[in-house]
């Protein structure tokens, strides 16, 4: 779409208009959609109107062209996202030429937050734009909605950088105060539908910022955000606010209400063509997570071994809640993420969840087929944890299918990839599992060497109890390969390792584990290593590394959990909150 001369006038349809392809009607529709504040169909409407105008020999004004550029830039996702900055900047110039100074500031703010500049530079630029917006509003040259949107864009940029500040909690409190003032600024004007849009998004962001520290307050903000969105008349669902609301409900234990929120959102998505495929996939992933039980995801079978690892929260063994609905939701999430094509990581995550859902229901072949698709895709930067998890699940399935050699290969590859991530604990746990699989495959010499590698890795991270356990398992394999005398030497080494851990004054739970390990080692020394299968059960549950994990307390994952693990919803390429970024 090229810029028309400054004196260009809108195409005059003349008498007898009204045809669906009539340029004037198309132009009116595009203007209405842009006025709705980020309507998902606005970009396409402007393109259609511009095409009709060119065919009729007309042109659009700079003001219309600016709105068209804004709408096109808002549609830039995934690989097209870098183009948004240029489009927003050009739109700002045309808005200024048309005397629309409030709109120009919004476009400039959007250009800043979509550009490649570092956070400090963006923050300074946004602060200046906020001052200008306040001045224009005081002079009657910017509306409340325009001013609120500029202020909101700055707050959103600050929220995305909270965890990089020296004191994130203090900065979150300060940002919460600014957002509360923004809500107070917009609230008296809520009779204006244009104000309800930024008001809803401001309340949603306030809920996100307060969720880690004050979940009840966050729930109030998020419920108000959903209500304001509905009152605004915007026809697309408030997906971000709904995901955040369900996430906080899960954290506070109100999982039934969280499921209700997500079921309603999923239902509206089926009927509402304005909901993007990527958002439909996210809603299904979140609903499946909610139905699966308290903070469980796609960890390994709780009846299996832990390799010495104990971790809290996150992704433990998947409880068999939700039945076939969970599998159906995850299968649909895979289909929708593939159709979207916006962020390949979403498809990888959906496949990991679907594969683990099949596996925990005993469908080893179906699970393996899905997990192999994860490994067959191109390896991108940041995919390492996802590949480790896929291999660990694939090995788990291979063991259940009676293919221990295949399981050992996948565990060993996963261990190597974990070590490349400088993740020694996961590398050690996976090496332990690879050794167990080799023992099951009746390869005691290889199994013994793998247990030795696992013990060395456990020592490197200071986990003496896990190292002793790997050494005890190694002794069994050494006996099978080289005799009881050499096995006794390994058991004595395991005994010293466990005693070394006790001297380190461990936590009470770890002390009990070490004492239990000492009892087992002494029993096996007494029995001179009774022949038998390696005992790969343990007191804890090993958790594979979370793919695309976010470590920040104030970041949001793909499920809508604040401070959770997963692709950040607000900062991942290709995602945005409607009407803002």
Structural class assignment = mainly alpha
Largest sheet: 2 strands, parallel
Strand order of the largest sheet: 1-2
What fraction strand? under 5%
**Sequence of secondary-structure elements:** HHHHHHHHHHHHHEEHHHHHHHHHH
Number of helices: 23
**Beginning-to-end CA distance, first to last residue:** 21 Å
General description of the model:
With 581 residues, the chain is mainly alpha-helical. 65% of the residues lie in helices and 1% in strands. It is built from 23 helices and two strands. A two-stranded parallel ribbon has the order 1-2. Helix 1 (23-35) runs antiparallel to helix 2 (42-55), helix 4 runs antiparallel to helix 5 (101-114) and helix 11 runs antiparallel to helix 12 (255-271). The chain is elongated and about 90 Å long. The protein starts with 22 loop residues before the first helix and ends in a 55-residue tail after the last helix. Residues 1-19, 295-321, 535-541 and 570-581 have low confidence and may be disordered.
Characterize this entry briefly.
Helices cover 65% and strands 1% of the residues.
Which characteristics define this entry?
581 residues, mainly alpha, two-stranded parallel ribbon, 23 helices, 2 strands, 65% helix, 1% strand
Chain-wise SSE layout:
Blueprint: H1 23-35, H2 42-55, H3 62-74, H4 83-97, H5 101-114, H6 119-138, H7 144-160, H8 168-186, H9 193-210, H10 215-232, H11 239-251, H12 255-271, H13 277-291, E1 296-299, E2 316-317, H14 323-340, H15 344-360, H16 364-376, H17 384-400, H18 404-420, H19 424-440, H20 444-460, H21 464-482, H22 484-503, H23 508-526
Helix pairs in contact: 1-2, 2-3, 3-4, 4-5, 5-6, 5-7, 6-7, 7-8, 7-9, 8-9, 9-10, 9-11, 10-11, 11-12, 11-13, 12-13, 13-14, 14-15, 15-16, 15-17, 16-17, 17-18, 18-19, 19-20, 19-21, 20-21, 21-22, 21-23, 22-23
């Amino acid at each position: 779409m090229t810029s028309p001369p400054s004196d260009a006038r809108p195409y005059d349809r003349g008498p007898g208009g009204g045809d669906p392809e009539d340029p004037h009607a198309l132009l009116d529709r595009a203007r209405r959609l842009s006025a709705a504040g980020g309507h998902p169909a606005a970009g396409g409407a402007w393109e259609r109107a511009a095409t009709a105008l060119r065919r009729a020999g007309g042109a659009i004004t700079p003001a219309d062209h600016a709105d068209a550029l804004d709408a096109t830039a808002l549609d830039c996702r995934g690989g097209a996202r870098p183009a948004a900055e240029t489009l927003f900047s050009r739109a700002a110039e045309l808005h200024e030429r048309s005397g629309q100074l409030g709109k120009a500031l919004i476009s400039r703010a959007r250009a800043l937050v979509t550009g490649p500049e570092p956070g400090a530079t963006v923050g300074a630029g946004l602060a200046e734009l906020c001052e200008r917006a306040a001045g224009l509003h005081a002079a009657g040259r910017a509306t409340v909605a325009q001013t609120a949107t500029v202020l909101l864009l700055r707050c959103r940029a600050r929220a995305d950088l909270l965890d990089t500040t020296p004191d994130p909690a203090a900065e979150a409190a300060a940002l919460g105060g600014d957002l509360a003032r923004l809500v107070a600024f917009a609230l008296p004007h809520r009779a204006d539908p244009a104000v309800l849009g930024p008001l809803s998004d401001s309340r949603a962001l306030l809920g996100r910022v307060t969720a880690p520290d004050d979940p009840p307050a966050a729930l109030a903000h998020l419920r108000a955000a959903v209500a304001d969105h509905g009152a605004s008349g915007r026809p697309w669902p408030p997906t971000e606010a709904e995901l955040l609301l369900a996430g906080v409900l899960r954290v506070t234990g109100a999982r039934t209400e969280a499921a209700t929120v997500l079921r309603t959102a999923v239902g509206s998505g089926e009927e509402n063509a304005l909901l993007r495929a990527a958002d439909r996939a996210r809603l299904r992933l979140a609903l499946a997570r909610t139905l699966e039980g308290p903070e469980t995801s796609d960890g390994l079978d709780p009846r299996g071994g832990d390799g010495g690892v104990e971790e809290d929260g996150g992704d433990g063994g998947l409880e068999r809640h939700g039945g076939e609905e969970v599998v159906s939701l995850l299968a649909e999430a895979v289909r929708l993420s593939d159709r979207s094509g916006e962020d390949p990581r979403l498809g990888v995550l959906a496949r990991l969840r679907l594969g683990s859902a099949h596996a925990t229901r005993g469908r080893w072949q179906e699970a393996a087929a899905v997990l192999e698709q994860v490994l067959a895709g191109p390896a991108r930067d940041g995919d390492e944890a996802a590949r480790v998890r896929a291999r660990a699940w694939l090995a788990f399935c291979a063991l259940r299918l009676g293919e221990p050699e295949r399981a050992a290969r996948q565990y060993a590859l996963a261990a190597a990839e974990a070590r490349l991530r400088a993740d020694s604990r996961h590398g050690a746990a996976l090496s332990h599992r690879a050794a167990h699989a080799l023992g099951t495959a009746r390869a005691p010499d290889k199994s013994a060497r793998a247990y030795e590698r696992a013990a060395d890795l456990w020592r490197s991270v200071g986990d003496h109890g896990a190292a002793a356990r790997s050494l005890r398992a190694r002794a069994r394999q050494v006996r099978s390969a080289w005799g009881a005398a050499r096995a006794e030497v390994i058991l004595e080494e395991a005994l010293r390792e466990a005693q070394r851990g006790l001297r380190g004054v461990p936590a009470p739970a770890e002390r009990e584990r070490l004492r239990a390990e000492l009892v087992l080692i002494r029993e096996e020394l007494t029995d001179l290593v009774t022949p038998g299968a390696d005992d790969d059960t343990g007191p804890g549950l090993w958790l594979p590394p979370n793919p695309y994990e976010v470590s920040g307390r104030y970041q949001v994952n793909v499920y809508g959990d604040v401070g959770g693990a997963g692709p950040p919803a607000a900062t991942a390429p290709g995602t945005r909150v409607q009407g803002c970024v």
